[in-house]
Amino acid sequence: MDKILRIDVGAQGGPKAVETGLGDYKGLGGRAMTSGIISKEVPPLCHPLGEDNKLVIAPGLLSGSAAAMSGRLSVGCKSPLTGGIKEANSGGQGSQVLARLGYAAIVLEGKPSDDTLYKVIINQDGVKIEADNSLKMLGNYDVVSKIKETYGGKFSSLSIGPAGEMKLSAATIAVTDMEQRPTRHAGRGGVGAVMGSKGIKAIILDDAGCKIRKPKDPDKFKAANKEFVAGIKKHPVSGEGLPAFGTNVLTNVLNEAGGYPTNNFSSGRFEGASNISGETLAELETARGGKATHGCHTGCVIQCSGTFNDKDGKFLTKQPEYETVWAHGGNCGIDDIDAIAQIDRLDDDFGLDTIEMGATIGVAMEAGLAEFGDAQAAINLVKEAGKGTPLGRILGNGAEVTGKVFGVERIPVVKSQAMPAYDPRAVQGIGVTYATTTQGADHTAGYAVATNILGVGGDVDPLKPEGQIELSRNLQIATAAIDAAGMCLFIAFPILDQPETFQALVDILSGFSGEPVTADDVSALGKSVLKTERDFNTRAGFTSKDDRLPEYFRKEKLAPHNVTFTVSDEDLDQVFNW
Amino acid sequence: MDKILRIDVGAQGGPKAVETGLGDYKGLGGRAMTSGIISKEVPPLCHPLGEDNKLVIAPGLLSGSAAAMSGRLSVGCKSPLTGGIKEANSGGQGSQVLARLGYAAIVLEGKPSDDTLYKVIINQDGVKIEADNSLKMLGNYDVVSKIKETYGGKFSSLSIGPAGEMKLSAATIAVTDMEQRPTRHAGRGGVGAVMGSKGIKAIILDDAGCKIRKPKDPDKFKAANKEFVAGIKKHPVSGEGLPAFGTNVLTNVLNEAGGYPTNNFSSGRFEGASNISGETLAELETARGGKATHGCHTGCVIQCSGTFNDKDGKFLTKQPEYETVWAHGGNCGIDDIDAIAQIDRLDDDFGLDTIEMGATIGVAMEAGLAEFGDAQAAINLVKEAGKGTPLGRILGNGAEVTGKVFGVERIPVVKSQAMPAYDPRAVQGIGVTYATTTQGADHTAGYAVATNILGVGGDVDPLKPEGQIELSRNLQIATAAIDAAGMCLFIAFPILDQPETFQALVDILSGFSGEPVTADDVSALGKSVLKTERDFNTRAGFTSKDDRLPEYFRKEKLAPHNVTFTVSDEDLDQVFNW
């Protein structure tokens, strides 16, 4: 991982690839790499779909190594959705393979001179870029099938669906999983639209002949990794809940806690929750011959994924994540798990962010375009987005645009990005993260739900403002470091609760790099990433006024606890005062 | 003008009216009044369509008096289009009548409990508010007809069309002219959407029995007004060009200067300009039995308006303004004056801002929704907006939303509001105003075209950055004062060139109020308005980054002069440093 691949899509005669050394970016990985390049090279006031924006794809520092859970990929750009800096994070095989191919980053830059669509093929022999207009407007599943026909069975791919080609702000980049299905997505903030604006439909990665990345201090690394894996397996969340029921284990938990946003954030509890819970889902998956326990990339020891078959036992989609089940489920008043799974498949195929789309359909339902609870109407709306009709383009540009176009007042966004599956009134810590993270409303940026609801890493009352600032701050710092390492965020559960597991992570980093690494170094890394991102956003015109929830979270009480968001503006402005 | 009428549209049992004294707002008029109330009473981060926003309607300080040109009305709110403070200014009879009725402001506040539509009737007996759902989704022309049926021939009205009811961000408030036609509009920034969000369809004003407002020093006032009128009449722009050809006299002038934005700001000169020029228009109007010289309110001595009849000699619309002819004409590659007049009528009837709509259709054409030059397609697109189809709602929310939804890069907006009819590359002074005014791109906020192109008030090279900051600053200050006085902006031509005419204006203010007024007082008034507005915008999250033109104006050269916008960011940040 000692080189950067830059592809100038505006070069004469079509995209040209150049490999460079790491230069200023030496020592960076994952989110630290993407945000480092974006912050330094992209003018903050540029148009996100214009020639000055860049798309950066970077494996984590530990990706491609034998470190467990190290297969997360960072994708960065100036976001077409938020107008600020973006790091969208994905599982799947892409990160491991790209790292083994030796690339610390791929940078797509410039602006195509025409609308030819290209694919990029990277293997141990180098980089090829080929025009392929036969891929135009194909869904991700068809793209992957066509790649398979041409390149055989052994590859990983990053691709965009019609949403990315249409440059919709909810467009994702799909990353194939271990079964070469486009089920993992760099989902948030419209990174797929930026890839579309560069005229690149797919990046095909083949690491045949490449070796696993070797640690500098193999003994230390191996021992630490062993301890790390043991720690993950012994923690109740990462060792039991997630493997058994996937992320959707949270449906019952959040619903019970009264923090499950229902019918476009108008209630904190959903009547139909048990019909779409992780427990119900796992049972159904198993009954239909799917898997309820499965990993999304090699090296995963949590196995929170699964496969969802349709009523005929035929693969439909991966196990829908909690946030997807919520977004297209309770948030729209829908408790039909088959309909939700069908939408999950549609979103993956079109290349649309399930969180943004579910929140958007909730807003559309509030606008009267469909009734809450009408699953078929929701399916039809997602299909509109895939087709790119005027209505579909509205929806595919997310909750804020949809709310604006239809004159809706209650739009659950921060920095124009839709809120995920936790109501900030009943989980005030996540409200602090939504408000203040550089990314727009994003639960993964500082998952205070862990401590507010799951009792992991301490115990902070979810209904009160006390302690939430410090909690969110510390989690945001830790998360930025985890994202830089390429680690799956779910390692946060054991490392927050078990000091020896955290130490094992530090030792993995040290064993891999051969340099001394301390807990303070990890914290400093996280802070440095956040500082870089905040600086970009400031230069893009963001102020403390953007670090706020929509006013209705302070005015409308959320049932069943009848609470509003009560963390003060003054306190929110202290999150980055460390 | 010693009272404020406040209507709480959320009161139990329907809207309730309360009259108060002027309190903190004593001595304010027009834009000083609207911005004063908004800045003090509206939370800057509130939703523009929510209960915390207010709509303020205020006649100018001199409105309702015998002062010439004093009939301009200010309408203020937090703008649904820009998110910042808004003052939209209109001609027509409303200001004179409201002032004579004694109201310094009408404030619509709160949030309706249901979707009943109301009309407000104000006469010398007081205020009545009546539910009238028969007005729902009527165009402004039909609204006025219905009012006429009920209240007879003698009234002025403010009303919204379907666009306002649908809360579209390009929705206007129509003000009737002297012939009781809804042809004058508080056009910019979506003020009609805010009126729609308050559930008020029309405000009917009848000043029967009310007297003209009397000056405190009649002799001074009368003498000054005489001098003022003489000054207006002797200046070539206000005394000759505007009366003869209306504002559309500018088509040939701007086209000749290479600053006429053509085909969505891609060129500065339009081949078909002569077919839609003021000269051509006036000839056609006269030939069809319409008027080429006409006033929009009593007390107007410039008479820049007119009436446009269709081919059968039947009234179609008022004489379309230069900005309208440009927006729906050259900016869309259209040189068919009948088609443009038809669109002007549609916009007035639906209650849509002609500038925003023309710029939006230009963006839609760039997106491929229609060909540049296709007049019928443009008419169809405006009709979509009036119907409120999904496509129509996109368009009716303006150029920025349309560009975002369709993935267009070249969107000519500042602070989300579309640029008017002067390319900032070939008229750099107006570019400074577009960038820095509190209002979003707005030529009327500091009409540097006067000095850059018309040689009024000095002579500053339009293609160069030198002198533009000071020019725009001084014009913005003067304009804010003129808007507070309720004066028509076109008095700027004589008062900039003729010191005695400026002094006459100062003397009118002094004669009317009976207090000593100096030129410095006028300047101080303008500065105070701008300061109030800037303060609101800062609290709403605006920064210097919002005081910028889109990047392509610095990158793409404009034919025929092959110029880019070259005023530096550092200089732009000096506009409000006085």
The largest contact between protein chains, plus residue counts on each side, is:
A-B, 36 and 36 residues
* Strand order, largest beta sheet of chain A: 2-1-6-3-4-5
Instruction: Give the DSSP E fraction of chain A (strand runs of 2 or more residues).
Output: 5-15%
**CATH C-level category of the largest domain in chain A:** Alpha Beta
The third-level CATH topology of the largest domain in chain A is Aldehyde Ferredoxin Oxidoreductase,  A, domain 1
Shape of chain A: globular
| CATH level-two architecture of the largest domain in chain A | 4-Layer Sandwich
Unreliable spans of chain A: none
- Helix/strand-derived category of chain A reads alpha+beta
Helix content percent band of chain A: 25-40%
Assembly state of the chains shown = homodimer
How many β strands of chain A by DSSP?
16
Distance between the termini of chain A: 32 Å
